[in-house]
Specification:
The protein has 114 residues and is of the alpha+beta class. It has a four-stranded antiparallel sheet with strand order 2-1-4-3. The protein has five helices and four strands, in the order H-H-E-E-H-H-E-E-H. It folds into two domains: 35 residues; 73 residues, no CATH class. 45% of the residues lie in helices and 26% in strands. The termini are far apart.
Length: 114
């Protein structure tokens, strides 16, 4: 009976110890915060029909680093129409809280309804 109590106590102790190591590991917290972190990004783009517009994106930091290359060929709905149009060129991208450097992009950004 005494051996059974000792064995049970050891199993419970080991179980709780391993749970605390897994649940509060700094590596697990880093992975959770990185996967849930999303950026609000705006891009000044030229569409296949020649019009320019601002497209809004919500993506991870890894996706943001390659957005200028990966957005070309994607379809967006310009604010002036209901029809989707393909992006032919990405002129500039910036975080939503930042300002564009190009004058034309700044003007389009001011007119963008949010």
């Amino acid at each position: 009976m005494k051996n059974l109590m000792i064995l049970t106590s050891c199993v419970v102790l080991i179980t709780f110890s391993s749970f605390n190591v897994i649940a509060f590991s700094p590596n697990n917290e880093d992975k959770k915060s990185n996967s849930s972190e999303r950026l609000s990004v705006k891009c000044h783009v030229t569409l296949i029909d020649g019009n320019e517009t601002i497209s809004l994106w919500r993506l991870s930091p890894e996706e943001y680093s390659i957005l200028k290359e990966s957005a070309v060929g994607k379809y967006v709905t310009p604010h002036s129409s209901n029809k989707e149009v393909k992006i032919s060129k990405v002129n500039e991208c910036a975080l939503e809280s930042e300002k564009f450097t190009a004058f034309s992009a700044k003007q389009l950004d001011k007119k963008l309804p949010r």
